[in-house]
Design brief:
about 350 residues, Isopropylmalate Dehydrogenase, 11 helices, 12 strands
Length: about 350
């Protein structure tokens, strides 16, 4: 069982990516990680730690400045394209991890791997923290598809429900549709068209959810188009950083240094809870094989967790469950038309 990792994608590549791979194989004795990128540089970091670590040499790197589709086509010897080629051609490779350009990872997933039959578009699905301890919420889509049709949102709901169920061991996660009001008649044309169709899906649809309820812990999955989802995700990240900075500033004003130090410890815990990076990677749901995009600033801990996340999704047959849900939806549509 192998996971291929783009060793030169991300702000802290290749050191943190390589170290994350080393940690991952230590955590799972049945796992082999294939690192793609400059072989000499990777070997220098490994410094002999090669047990269940393989290297596929690649001389180029795709950066955030590159046009995604063009880069996939032209930089054929890049670490990312090499990773996709291995994912496509090697049956032992179960999934791919990259901290590189989101657009390039999406383009590679579509161009090199393709979609599950019946899925209209892949969707990016990250987890966010909630006010309830130990509980998170999944946002799907968060940026892969800026313009959507109702069909896309229905597929997002099916895929996200299956994904949340695996990652959180919840049999029937509560799925909500992001809207500017809870009432069924509210929203733009896309949401109003999607709402009645969502009720027919083989999922636990609970209706519309307003953005302020995102982190309440009362909903498990929020379905939306990529534009609104990305705005929601960036807003949560921004608010988390702003709250942390404001609390830190207030703590420093405290005249009692001991109390202030105690307060700083509490604030650090809050900051860590608000840090979306600790939730690992976000999969492009709907691809024929597992493709997971981890945060651009991912450190070795996050990279390790993301690699192990791929293993978990593979072992729990995510794509097979998505296909089964799609079949249920299609059967229900046929039955309603008879």
């Amino acid at each position: 069982m192998k996971v291929v990792v783009d060793a030169f994608g991300g702000d802290y590549a290749p050191v943190e990516i390589v170290e994350g791979a080393v940690k991952a194989v230590k955590c799972d004795k049945d796992l082999t990680v294939v690192l793609t990128g400059d072989e000499t540089k990777i070997n220098n970091i490994l410094n002999g730690r090669t047990e269940r670590i393989e290297i596929a040499h690649a001389s180029e790197v795709i950066t955030n400045d590159d046009a995604p589709t063009l880069a996939i086509r032209q930089k054929k010897d890049s670490s990312l394209v090499k990773a996709f080629d291995l994912l496509k051609e090697d049956e032992d490779v179960i999934g791919l991890v990259s901290a590189g350009s989101t657009g390039a990872v999406l383009a590679g997933a579509i161009m090199k791997i393709g979609r599950i039959k019946g899925i209209s578009r892949p969707a990016l699905a990250p987890f966010l923290p909630t006010m309830k301890d130990g509980k998170n919420v999944l946002v799907c889509d968060s940026g892969a598809n800026v313009d959507c049709k109702s069909e896309h949102l229905l597929h997002f709901a099916i895929m996200a429900s299956a994904y949340y169920s695996i990652m959180n061991n919840v049999e029937s996660p509560k799925v909500g549709l992001l809207n500017n009001g809870a009432e069924e008649h509210k929203g733009n044309e896309l949401v109003k068209e999607t709402y009645p169709l969502m009720k027919q899906l083989p999922i636990n649809f609970i209706g519309n959810v307003e953005a302020r309820e995102t982190m309440s812990g009362d909903v498990d999955v929020i379905v939306t188009d990529g534009f609104a989802g990305n705005v929601l995700l960036k807003s949560v990240e921004g608010v988390g950083g702003a709250i942390s900075a404001m609390l830190k500033k207030e703590a420093k004003k405290n005249l009692f240094s001991v109390l202030g130090a105690l307060m700083m410890g509490k604030f650090k815990g809050l900051k860590n809870k608000m840090d979306v990076k600790k939730y690992g990677g976000a999969p492009f749901l709907g691809c024929k094989k597992l493709v997971v995009k981890t945060h651009g600033t991912a450190n070795r801990e996050v990279v390790c967790n993301t690699i192990l996340q791929v293993v978990k999704l593979h072992e729990n047959k995510l794509n097979e469950k998505i296909e089964a849900k799609l079949l249920q939806m299609q059967e229900k549509v046929v039955a309603s038309n008879d």
